[in-house]
Amino acid sequence: MFCRKCGSVILEGHEFCAKCGTKVYNVSLASSTNNPAMGIPVNNVTNNSELPYPKSNKKDKKIVVALVAAAIVLFCTLIGVIVVYGNNPERKLEKQLELAQRYLEDLDYEQAIATYEAALEIDPKCVDAYIGLAEVYEEMEDYEKAAEILQKGLEETDSKAIEKAKSKLEKILFADNEQQVQSEAGESHETSEEQSEEERLEAERLEQERIEAEKAKEYEEFISNTCGDSAIEAYIEYFDKNYGFDSISQGSCYCIYLNNDKIPELVVDGGDAASGAMIFTYGPDGVSEIFLRRGEFLYWEKKNVIDNDSGNSGGYGDAIIEIKNGVFNVIAGGSYFIKDEYYSSPSWDEDYMWNCVWEGEDVTYSEYNRIKESYFPSGDGQWNNAYDIGVSIYGTYAFYDAYHDLMIRWGEAEYWEFYGGMEKPNIYIYPDFSSQQTTVVDGSRVVETNVTLTINNGTLTSSWPESVLQNGKYNWHVYAGEDGTIYDSNGNEYSYLFWEGTSNWEPDFSKGFCVRGDETAAFLRSNLSRMGLTPREYNEFIVYWAPRMQGNKYNLISFQGLEYTNACPLCIKDSEGNAPNSMLRVMMAWKPADSKVTIEAQTFVPFDRTGFTVVEWGGRECN
C-alpha cells in the first residue's frame, strides 16, 4: 500500500510511513463501488499490494511542497506582524488620541470624552489625554470638571504641562468669579448710583427753581426802584472802564427797549461787519453784555426777542437771545451752509441748496425757518445792519433813546481817523507735491505750511481757524493737501484760511467799473474768471458779495493792487522755506452809486497757476 501523505510505498505490516512518518490506517474498500481517489474499479483489487497507484515525479512534488511551505510561512509571518502591531499599546493610545481630537474639533463632546477616557485606560499617565479631556470640559464651560481632571492628571504624572494648563484654568475661574462679583456689586452700585443721581438732579432742579424765583423777585424790586437815567450812567461807566471811548472809531451808539420794562438796552454798533455790535442791559448784578456777530440782528421792541441772523460766503447762522432777570441768555440757535454740490449743479431750490442744522439736528431749509420763526412774536421786527447805520460818531458819543425820542449826549471825544474794514479775505493754498516735501495727516499727503499776515495801521478782528499773534503779526501753522484742503495740527479740515480786519489804507478808485446792481453777479463771474479765479473760488466770492450789491442801482467797483498788498503783506512758506511760485490777491473795493459813473476801465494780467500756488480774495465796502 502507499502513504496517503507522501505517496511512498508502505510495506505490509508497517504502522508508519518509513519516509514521512505518517500513521498508516487500513482502509476497507467496498467491492461494489469505484475508488474516486484512484479512478480504478475496486472489485479488480485483491489486496493492498496490488493497487495500481500511478508513479509520481518526486522532483515536481518537492517543488510543490516547498512553495506551499513558503506561502504558509509568509502568511503566518504577516498575521504575526499584524497581531503584534495591532496589539501594541502605544499604537492603540496614539489612535485614541487622534480620534478624540477629531471628535473635539467636530464638537462631539460626548464621544471626545469617551475616547479620551479610553486612552487613559490604555495609559493612566498619558499627559495629552488629561489635557485633552480637560479641554473638552472647558469647551463645555464645565470648568470645575476640567480642573478636577487636571488635578488628577497632575497627581498621576507630576507633569509641568498639566501644571501649566491647570494654572491657566485657575486664572479663568478667578476672572469669571471676579467678574460675577463685580457685576453683582456693580448692579447694586448702579442701582444705588441711579437713585443717588436722580435724587441729586431733583435736588439741583429744586435749588435752581429757588434761585430763579429769588432772582426774579430781586429783579422786580430792582426795576421798580431804577430809572432809565441810572441805566445810562451805568452803561457809560461800564463801557469806559472795560473798552474805553477810543474803541469806537465809526458806527453809532443808541438805545432800544428789548423787554417790557423802563430800562433801555444800549447798542454799540461798530459800523461794519468786521467790528460787529454789542448790546448791554442793566440788572441787579450790574451791566450784562452780549456780542452780536457782524452787527446783524432782528429784534421786536418790548417783546424780549433778538435774532442774531448773520453769516458770510455761503455760511450763515442764527442765535435766539432773550433777557432774563437782567442777563442775556442764548435760548436756541442753528446754522446753514451752501452744499458743495450746489457749485457744480446750481439750483435755486433752497431745500437742495442748503445744509441746515438747528440745535444739533439736521433739518431742511423750510423746517429751519419754520422753527426759527416759532420764537418770533407777532408783528414785524426791526432790523439792525452794520452797513445801514449810516451814522458815524465824531466829536460826540451819543445814546439815542428810540422809545422816548431822547438824545443823551455825553463825553466830548477827539476826532478819530476812519478805519475801513476788510471783509472775508479767504486764503486758498495749493501745494505742488512734485517739488515740495510732503508729510501725512490723517492718512492724507500734505505740505506743512506757515502763513504770516501783517496789517499795517490796523488790526485783525476775526480769523478761522484762529491765528496766533506774535510780534505784531498773525500766524497760522497748517497743512495743505493737493486739492487745497487745509488741516490744522488737530486734523480739523478747512476749505481756506479766513480773516477780517481794519486798516486805514485808502482805496484807489481812479480806475474800475460802474455796474448796474442787477448785473453785478454776472459781472463778477466774468471778470473774476478772467483774473484767474477757479469756479469754486469765484462762486464763493459771488455768494458772499452779490446779495449785498445787486439791490443797488449801480455799484462802483475797483480791484485794488499795491494799496492793499502793501497795507496787508502776506508771507507764506513751506517747511523748507519755499515761497509760492504763484500768488494772486484779489481785493475788491466798492460803493453803491445812485447814477452811472464814468470811470476808466481796469485791465487784468492773466494769472498763471504754476507750481506752489496761493489765491486770496476779499472785499471792502466804502462810503
Question: Which key terms come to mind for this protein?
Answer:
8-stranded antiparallel β-sheet; 8-stranded mixed β-sheet; alpha+beta; 29% strand; 4 domains; single chain; Serine Threonine Protein Phosphatase 5, Tetratricopeptide repeat; 13 helices; 623 residues
Overall shape: it is elongated
Counted by DSSP, the helix tally is 13
Strand segment tally: 31
Helix/sheet category: alpha+beta
Helix content: 25-40%
Please give the domain count.
4
The span between the termini is 156 Å
The share of residues in extended strands comes to 25-35%
Task: List unreliable stretches of 5+ residues.
Answer: 27-54, 386-419
Mean pLDDT: 80
State the major sheet: 8 strands, antiparallel
Rg of Cα set? 53 Å
